[in-house]
Specification:
Elements (H helix, E strand, L loop, with lengths): L6 E13 L2 E16 L4 E7 L8 E8 L2 E7 L4 E5 L4 E8 L2 E16 L3 E12 L2 E14 L4
Antiparallel strand pairs: 1-2, 1-10, 2-3, 3-4, 4-5, 5-6, 7-8, 8-9, 9-10
């Protein structure tokens, strides 16, 4: 992750996973981050704590047209690529070892204006060759007023 300084933003992130059409896990995160707009891509960076006893994870989301990539760095690391109708295979790195994972993206939508933006991702996740869940993530951001 490059060290460019971005525009300060406020982020609201809602994520949910469903197994067999039953809501299983819901997460809501409100945090600050930064937005970097380039001619060919938009970057959103923030930190996320999975466990209050551990250091936060660094998250970087890159949006390039219809392709969204997400990089998670820290104790749990993963790189994911989301493009509607495409399958992506990678590994999820944990302190206990690496897990094979695959995702199939069913929705990747990004909209933005001068005040803020929204990213919606929906995908099926397989871990170690087995269906795990369907995940949906809604990330809203607003530029900080004092920025």
């Amino acid at each position: 992750m490059a060290a460019h300084k971005g525009i300060p933003i406020l982020i609201s992130l809602d994520a949910q996973s469903n197994t067999e059409n039953q809501p299983e896990d819901t997460m809501r995160l409100i945090t600050t981050g930064e937005l970097i707009e380039k001619p060919d891509e938009t970057l959103i960076r923030y930190e996320e704590s999975l466990d209050e006893n551990e250091p936060p994870q660094k998250i970087e989301i890159a949006i390039r047209g219809p392709v969204v990539t997400m990089s998670r760095q820290g104790k749990f690391e993963a790189n994911m690529v989301f493009q509607k109708g495409s399958r992506y295979e990678s590994q999820y790195h944990t302190p206990l070892g690496d897990l094979d994972m695959a995702l199939y993206c069913t929705r990747a939508a990004y909209t933005a204006d001068h005040e803020g933006g929204e990213l919606v991702l929906q995908y099926q996740l397989d871990v170690s060759g087995q269906y795990a869940a369907v995940h949906e993530m809604h990330l809203h951001y607003m530029r900080k007023k004092d920025a």
